[in-house]
Write a structure and sequence with these properties.
Layout (H helix, E strand, L loop, with lengths): L1 H21 L8 H21 L14 E2 L11 E5 L2 E9 L14 H5 L2 E8 L5 E10 L2 E11 L23 H13 L7 H30 L1
Antiparallel strand pairs: 1-2, 2-3, 3-4, 4-5, 5-6
């Protein structure tokens, strides 16, 4: 939805810039001032349109997970919980945002919404490394893509590619080991019950990001006047 809104805003601005350079009135006014005015007007219109979009129904995270403070304004963990002496931290992003070489326009709308990447970090006191699971999260399933050890410093900020060997392909493991790892994360509450909350959370985060983008671009254009 937000990608569609962004594309419409960009297309509208491009169309208006074309009109500026193909109509006579640009001879009598400063091209820069006219272009800036067009951009600001289009940004305002789309900002208003996006601000009226109805938010999804409020969904609470499944207990005992709680939302990490400030998660909406960062690219780090979203949910956390304690399991015995362990701390479980979950980060999420849309699968379409990190698959290389994929054209978003070729992805079915439902597929784009219903495919999430879930990062699961399991840490214990006094240990410098965490057990990291990269998973695909769907409305009715969780699938593990890889299991690796990551230094705690690598899990404290934005989601990024680990700097060291990331372990074998999960599919290269035998069935018994794969089943054991799935049971491991299931025991810690990582299951498809997380999907409704994380899907709604990403919806809200995308909305905030797009609104911020409209405002920031408008502020920069105003300062250029």
């Amino acid at each position: 939805m937000w990608r569609t809104a962004m594309a419409r805003a960009t297309g509208a601005i491009r169309l208006q810039l074309t009109e500026i350079t193909t109509t006579p009135f640009h001879r009598y006014y400063s091209p820069s001032a006219v272009i800036n005015s067009m951009i600001l007007r289009s940004l305002k219109e789309h900002y208003t349109e996006v601000s009226k979009m109805a938010p999804p129904p409020k969904v609470s995270p499944p207990e005992p997970f709680t939302v990490v403070k400030g998660a909406l304004d960062s690219g780090g963990p979203v949910l956390t919980r304690v399991y015995g002496e362990e701390e479980i931290r979950l980060s999420v992003m849309r699968m379409i945002n990190i698959l290389p070489g994929v054209d978003p326009s070729e992805i079915d709308g439902d597929d784009e919404i219903n495919q999430l990447f879930l990062h699961v970090d399991v840490s214990k006191p006094g240990q410098d490394y965490v057990l990291h699971f990269l998973c695909g999260l769907y409305p009715d399933a969780v699938g593990i893509h890889s299991v690796s050890l990551r230094h705690k410093l690598e899990t404290s900020g934005l989601l990024e590619v680990p700097s060291k060997y990331n372990g074998p392909s999960f599919e290269a493991l035998d069935d018994r080991m794969r089943d054991a790892f799935h049971g491991y994360i299931e025991e810690r509450g990582v299951n498809d019950g997380l999907f409704p909350f994380l899907q709604a959370w990403l919806y809200v985060k995308d909305h905030r990001g797009l609104m911020h983008w409209f405002k920031s671009i408008g502020t920069c254009v105003k300062k250029a006047n």
